[in-house]
Amino acid sequence: MRVIDDLPPVKRGFWHHAGVSPCAVEIVCHHTLLGSDDSDDPPELALDRQVECYYVRYHTPEPVPPWFNGGVALSLREAVFLAERRLGPVVCWVD
Q: How far apart are CA 26 and CA 35, in angstroms?
């Protein structure tokens, strides 16, 4: 996920961890949907695919790891929904 951590965000905002602590959330666009690399998974899940996709990344108040994986979506709209579903009802988007 290192490459994804270094991508510029297409959408940024914050959410409140435990309803109190403001923490960053970002959505980044990437050209590769990363596979699981698990040989037990079918090829469509195990192998990387070349397709535009959007990764949700978020912080918590803890300093490590710098970003948590919030999931991946095939559209920006779906990624926004995914972030809001994962992080709670109030995600404040700033751009």
A: 21
